[in-house]
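Researcher: Next sequence.
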Amino acid sequence: MILDDKLSVLSNSHRRRLLRTLIDDSAPNTPTVSPNAVETDGGDREYAIVLHHVHLPQLEDHGIITWNQATGEVTKGPQFDEIEPLLAAVTKNHSTQPAGEPPD
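Model: Next structure:
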């Protein structure tokens, strides 16, 4: 995966949150998470729809996740290891926001 594709995938905070959930909430031997763990976003139905129709398919198209639509199960895909270091760098100081800048 080229750098521009990696940056494009990580440009959205919802996708970053989903990927971080795969890292943070998964047992080391079973890297699986349900989108329900991140999709509710305070019960936001619109966000849940966007997650299922935009974010999950995009991550799956890039091979970053494997998504079983029937069960809702999301696992690390074959390209996950390739994007994980950049994800870690991008999210390391995720709470740091430049003054006057709205969060993404």
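Model: The chain has one domain: 3-91. The longest strand covers residues 65-68.
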